[in-house]
Design goal:
By secondary structure, this protein is an alpha/beta fold. The protein is built from 13 helices and 18 strands. The protein has a domain of 217 residues: 3-Layer(bba) Sandwich (FAD/NAD(P)-binding domain), CATH 3.50.50.60. Helix content is 34%, strand content 27%. The longest helix has 29 residues. The chain binds ligand 5PR. The site of ligand 5PR has 9 residues, from β3.
């Protein structure tokens, strides 16, 4: 018997690819997802998700699984030279913190349960506008829809020769998952609410920042930021003496981080001429890598994965290329603005002044990609 379902081939088993795969499979598509690594697993440490991506997790049925090992801290606190600038309780804003491995496992489970065929050790080298996918082993496959969710170095994007602009910022970050060590931290600084996210900034005399983010009862995500030009600040493994001299109250968790090799990532923003070409669409870092300031890299990846799956399903097969262009026209401005704002915050380090999540900076966080009326609401 031949399969009458429409078929999607997806390159990339990260947050964007798994979300798109699940949403399409749940809408009746046959879906095959390729991951070039030998195992599907998350790189990186911790993450914050906001309403936009949490709505997507609701819609694919993954929220109970996510909530079992994630949390909403009591406040998002900002300190400058250890003086509290703000404690934002984010009333009315839905947000959660978690580890990247947990979010990835949650999406992988949803994809498997939705019937997505997942192929590891499978490297996609490119795609054509007509929907032919090529693989490193010389094989090819044909699909009604091809999705390049293959990261900032996207082979799918580059094979289509879509022009790209890349901008690098002066700062970068090393990220760790370490044990919470709450009792030890409490002993060093009893008045601190150690369940809060705490964004510890130091700009003068030296730019060094620690973003402290509890991910669940056992695991803490800490991100250590410094300018790329600061050789000691950006060294891995971290320079424990330097970091504990500036953040003595974090010594117990910095010692844990110092025991891990780590990797320093410079911030970058990439902007593409277009996100689609014929039957191919790009989502996530392959289309819109961004600075992390607004914590919206994965959030925009997941919202675009979801809206792409809905738009592709609603389009007749012979109208798919036009429907993908229309999807980009409607959805891309939200991501463009998130990229611009995140880059502005990275360049100005304005977040050090506190009250990080007010005004325009929460537009993406509050967005609901699953609301069919969302564009009317925003236009009104
Ligand atoms: N939020 C999160 C984060 O990981 C970073 C930032 C904000 C969750 C850094 O990676 O401001 O740079 C930030």
């Amino acid at each position: 018997m031949t399969d009458s379902r429409r078929h999607a081939e997806i390159s990339g088993g990260g947050f964007a690819g798994l979300t798109a795969a699940t949403a399409l499979a749940q809408r009746g598509w046959s879906v095959r997802l390729h991951e070039r690594a030998s195992e599907l697993r998350a790189e990186g440490a911790g993450i914050v998700l906001w309403n936009n991506s949490l709505q997507v997790l609701d819609a694919i049925g993954a929220t109970p699984d996510l909530d079992a090992r994630s949390m909403t801290p009591p406040a998002y606190e900002t300190r400058m030279n250890n003086v509290i600038q703000s404690q934002e309780t984010l009333e009315g804003i839905r947000w959660r913190t978690m580890t990247r491995p947990h979010l990835h496992q949650t999406l992988l489970t949803a994809a498997r349960e939705s019937g997505v065929e997942i192929v590891a050790d499978s490297a996609v080298t490119g795609a054509t506008p007509e929907g032919t996918v090529t693989f490193a082993n010389g094989e090819t496959a044909q699909a009604d829809l091809v999705i390049g969710a293959d990261g900032v170095g996207s082979a799918v994007r580059d094979s289509l020769k879509i022009p790209l602009k890349r901008e690098r910022s002066r700062d970068g970050i090393t990220r760790f998952l370490v044990p919470r060590k709450k009792a030890e931290l409490q002993a060093l600084e009893p008045d601190t609410e150690w369940d809060n996210v705490i964004d510890f900034w130091n700009l003068d005399p030296r730019v060094l920042r620690v973003l402290y983010t509890p991910a669940n009862d056992e695991e803490l995500y800490i991100a250590l930021m410094s300018p790329s030009a600061d050789a000691d600040g950006s060294r891995v493994p971290i320079d424990l003496e330097l970091w504990t001299s500036i953040f003595p109250q974090l010594a117990p968790v910095l010692e844990e981080a110092a025991g891990v090799q780590g990797r320093y990532y410079g911030y970058q923003t990439t902007r593409l001429d277009r996100w689609t070409e014929g039957r191919v669409a790009l989502i996530g870092d392959s289309a819109h890598a961004m600075c992390p300031a607004l914590a919206q890299g994965a959030g925009t990846a997941m919202q675009n994965a979801w809206t792409l799956a809905v738009a592709a399903t609603e389009a007749a097969d012979d109208e798919l290329p036009g429907a993908l262009q229309e999807w980009e026209r409607l959805e891309r401005p939200y991501t463009d603005r998130a990229q611009d704002r995140s880059q502005w915050y990275a360049d100005t380090r304005e977040m050090a002044n506190g009250n990080q999540f007010t005004g325009e900076s929460v537009e993406t966080a509050l967005y609901n990609p699953t609301d069919p009326k969302r564009h009317e609401v925003h236009a009104a």
